[in-house]
Amino acid sequence: MPERTKRNVNLDLDLIRTFVAVVEAHSFTKAGRRLGRSQSAISLQMRRLEDQVGAVLLSRDPRHVVLTAAGEAFLPQARRLLRLNDEILSEVRGDDIEGEVRLGAPEDFATVHLPEILGEFARQHPKVALTVTCDLTLHLLERLREGQLDVALVKREPLGPDQGIRVWREPLVWVGADRSLLDGKAAAPLILAPSPCVYRKRAIAALDTAGRPWRCAYTSPSLAGQHAALRAGLGITVLPRDMAPADLAILGEGEGLPALPDTEIALLRARTAVPTAANRLAEFVLAALDRRHAMTSDAP
Questions:
Q1: What residues form DSSP beta bridges with 156?
Q2: Considering the entire predicted model, what is its pTM?
Q3: Are 180 and 122 members of one domain?
Q4: pLDDT tens-digit map of 87-110
Q5: Shortest CA distance to 226 belongs to which of 213, 245, 207, 241?
Q6: What is the arrangement of strands in the sheet containing 128-134, beginning at the earlier edge strand?
Q7: What is the CATH number of the domain that holds 119?
Q8: pLDDT tens across 146-185, in order?
Q9: What's the structural domain count of the chain?
Q10: Where in the sequence is the domain holding 145, given as residue range(s)?
Q11: Are 185 and 216 in the same domain?
C-alpha cells in the first residue's frame, strides 16, 4: 500500500491569540471580556485549537485554568507566532508604533536580563520612548497602582498570590566571598537589602525555620553595594543562581545553610497604559524571556 502522507495543518492565529489571552487572564470569562467574546465562544475556540495541535493545552475546573505540559511547551511558540505576525504587518503597513512606555523592574533582574532585550526592542521600534525604573517589588506595585508605570516586572512567591504573568523562575542560592565566613555556632552574617525585599524575607525565614542564628551585618538598597560588601567578606546573601557573581562562592548544606525555594518574576500591565506601545513591549519581553528560559532549560 502507498505510504499515507500527513496533512499539513495551518494554525489559526485568532485561536492562538485567544489561547494567550486565556493564559494571561487565568480565566475564560476574563479573556472573553478582553477580546469581546462570550465565555462559550472562548471555550469553543480552545477546543478548536486543541484539535489543530492534537494535544490538550489547558486543564480546566470551575475556578482555575492551568496549563498542561503540552500547553507549557506551546505557550512560548504561540507568543513567537503572534509577535512575528504583528511585526510583519507593521513593516508592510509602515505604521510603526510610537509613544512612551514606563517599565519598572527589580535592579538585579534589570541589570542581568533586560539590557539586551530592551536594546533589541528599541531598534525595532525607534519611535517608542522607554523609561526604566529599578526599585523593590513593593514600590513597583505602588507605582503601578498610582499610574506611574505602564508595565512592571516584579518578584513574587511561587505559592503566593497569583498576580501577573509568570515570566521567569530560577533557584535561589546562598553567596559569599568564601566558606570561612560561617562558623557552625556563630550567627550567620547577612548582607541584605532594606525591607521590604523578597530575598531578605526568604533568607531570614529559611534561617529561622532551620533554627540557625543570624545577624544583619550590612544593609544596602543597591545591588552594587551588596556585591561590594560580599567581596569585602562582610557576610553572605541570597541571590538567584544566574545572578551570582563568578568570583564569589555558592554556599549550601555543607556550610549548614538551609535550602531556599525558587524565585519567580511576573509581568503586570497597568490599565491606564498606552495600549499599543505598552502591549507591544510586554509581548516582546514575554517572548524574549520565554526564548531565554528555553535555551537555559536545554543547556547541558
A1: 264
A2: 0.65
A3: no
A4: 777 767 655 678 889 999 988 888
A5: 245
A6: 128-134, 99-105, 151-156, 263-269, 165-170
A7: 3.40.190.10
A8: 889 999 999 887 654 456 788 888 789 999 988 887 876 7
A9: 3
A10: 98-170+264-298
A11: yes
